[in-house]
Amino acid sequence: DSLLAQTYSNLEIICVEDCSTDDSSKIAKAYAADHERIRLICHDCNVGLGPARNTGLKLASAPLVGFVDSDDYVHASMYEKLYSLLTKHGADIAQCSAFFVEEDGTVLNKRPGASGCCRNEPLLCLYGPQGTPEFVGAAWNKLYKKELFTAHDIEYPPHYFEDIPVMVRLLYYAKCVASLEEGLYYYVQRPDSIV
Asked: Taking the chain, what is the end-to-end CA distance rounded to the nearest angstrom?
């Protein structure tokens, strides 16, 4: 629902159904049937979060891509603001801050919490030195130029914390990373999460 409500309307939504064991498949099929912008891809067997991200990346037709985990949600203006930030700075990656929330929406904390642009050595964003924006090494609160993945054969590995090794490579190749202090991604904390 939060993706369908985006103020940036030129959005292709690729839903990768990775053999879930709950009602996710039925829900995803209903959404895809009701909304032209949703493309549903169903895996034949469960391959995990990293390979599911790779499936979506390969099928994305747009030059920019982002990821939203299945149990999270985003502010209605997230992709519009990240697109504006990315184009304004000529960035390869644009990120916003994220709220870590309970299932009922109660905010637990916010991060990273800085605005700015890192041009010379974006890899240093991971360490947050003085004068550069703080950075979260996760895949989900960002908008990327797809060519950052394709030009360097970057794929997500099939294990937990799959985004960390990929993020290091993306930052290595990025010429500019722009950050927005505003919290626009809602990362839901659940006791039965995979991590």
From this structure: 24
Which of 161, 137, 140 is closest to 70 using CA atoms? 140
Tell me if 146 sits within 8 A of 65, measured CB to CB: yes
Report pLDDT digits (tens) over 13-68. 999 999 988 888 899 999 999 999 999 999 999 999 999 999 999 999 999 999 99
H or E stretch including 171?
A: helix 163-173
Give the predicted TM-score (pTM) of the model: 0.92
**Single-letter amino acid, residue 24:** S
Q: Which two tokens stand for residue 59?
A: 């099928």
β-strand pairing of 177-188 with 93-101: parallel
Q: Greatest CA separation found in the chain? A: 49
Contact present, 112 and 133 (Cβ < 8 Å): yes
Among all chains, which residue has been given the structure tokens 């920019």? 64
Q: Which residue has the tokens 């309970």?
A: 102
The Cα 103–Cα 84 span in angstroms is 30
